[in-house]
Amino acid sequence: MDAVIEHFGTFLSGFGRTLALLGIAGAGALVIGTVVAGMRISPVAPMRAVATVYTEVFRNIPLTLVLFACAFVLPYVGVRFAGLDPQSGYFVLACIGLTAYTAPFIAEALRSGINAIPLGQAEAARAIGLTFGQTLGIVILPQAVRMVIPPIINVLIALTKNTSVAGGFFVVELVASSRRVINERGDETIAILLAVAAFYLVVTVTLGRIAAVVEARVAVLR
Amino acid sequence: MSVLYEVPGPRARRLARIVSVVVIVLLVAGVTWLVVQLALPRTTATGSVQPGLLDPSRWDVLRDLAVWRSLGRALLGTLSMAGVAAVLALVIGVLFSFGRTARSAFVRVPVTVVLEFFRGMPVLLMMFFILLVFAAQAYWAGVWALAVYNGALIGEILRAGVAALPRGQREAGLTIGLSPLRTRLLIEFPQAVRNMLPIIIAQLVVLLKDTALAYIIGYDELLNTVRSLSNFFGNQYFFSLFFVVLAIYLTLNLLLSWVARFVAARTGPNAGRPRIPRRGVHPQGTKH
User: Fold this and answer.
1) Residue B176 DSSP label
2) Does A111 touch chain B (CB under 8 A)?
3) What's the number of domains chain A is made of?
4) Domain limits at A38?
5) B276/A contact by beta carbon, under 8 A
6) pTM of this structure
């Protein structure tokens, strides 16, 4: 146990980086995911096609390969973050990878929420002369968002766990920093790994509770 | 045509055409930029000039049968890890679903806590735990971490499947004199598994994807083979081999996802019924 206390600062900085990955990639994925979901239901066929291909491809590539590509291929084609030290460079690359990987899952959650809205809502909106943008923005999305908050939180919980993969690609987040501590204190491996588990549980359990509360509220409303 | 928008008039059609052209131009520009960037020759750190990625000299390694043999071996390694982990995950899932619905709180509560714990853990952390604490080989660390994590998820899926059955099913089983265990095994499980099969298969696709995590703990799966092959044949083949592995993963997972969809259409709760789009405002959902 004393190894955990002794290196608590290392854990905290790793935890901070995990939270930063979660925050940045989560926000990015929410924005891009919403755009992709909008593209998938848009009247313009090529936009639908682009969004569908993007979703299908990224949902069927392992995250490890996505981050591998971000860490090795992106710098090669010129996406470098010069001026940043290598560590923060890889951090930005990992954020890009996690965002690109998570956005399709957000988009699918949103789309299933939009699909669950009764047809009459859209018909009514159109009957009173609203355009596509208005139908979506004023009538459909406000109802869909309420329904998709629990599944979106599940996606964010998955993202929390997925940030650990960035630890394999030069980002010193929670798992990577715990490995550094283990290198020093191999005698307390179990305690160190359980401490890391506790950090993850703090985030995932909190998010899970929020999802449960929201779900209960939405159930009352409907 | 979707219910979300009108049948487009001349103005909307023109707008759609303009947007289409813009989207396609942007896309083509992006892809071209990427290809050009990859195709440019580079000067390496040692000062020698490396030809671009489209140059045949970057791909001729694929003519070597030994490369395909090691890629095949790595693919088998990946598939064997996924297969063994999938079987174990199903067994663990059944056990978890029993424990989770046990009548005695002494079983139910600890199992629920353990299950929640596993569901909230990154698979990678579990791999490290097994690797370091049990001093297991990378292969078994990967297999057990994937099995326990996905077992916990499948357990929850099965539990939800049993809970969703009409209560009369269980009551009928108990009434004709079956023990609670036999009622569960003979009456509830077959129906729950059938209803949940699409979700279970989707979870197994996730499991297959997650085998790539074993790269990080140093198991010789596809991604690690890219590394060792390019160490052996020369670094200029690194990207070529990476793109080959990317294609292998994509094919494999798209195939499995397609199977999952096929199974969902055949065995889901709506199997055999004509598909009537009743709800939903999705473009493909309703015809006008």
Assistant:
1) T
2) yes
3) 1
4) 2-221
5) no
6) 0.85
